[in-house]
Input
Amino acid sequence: MIRIALILSLFFIGLTLGKADTSSCDDIKVTAEITHTSSNSLGEIEVKIENVSKPYEIYWIPPNSTIILSEPNQISQKDLIKGKYIMYLRDANGCRLKKEFVVK
Output
């Protein structure tokens, strides 16, 4: 738990000496199409990100977990159980964004 908190703290604080260019942060748009679970399939979150400065980093936290799901920068997630998934994004300008998605 401490390891994850430290990783996300560093992720959001950033270890840069310069000031982040936040003028374009409000322009970042994240949309998602969520496929919910059913009796014969797992869920999926297909994410689309617009107006983000590259390179960017993305991390996912699955429900009831203290580990990071998948490799960094994986935009969409598949084979998901029911629950809340949290996506953290940081772009090249230092903009930071947290989005929550629920798979039912």
The helical segments are 2-13.
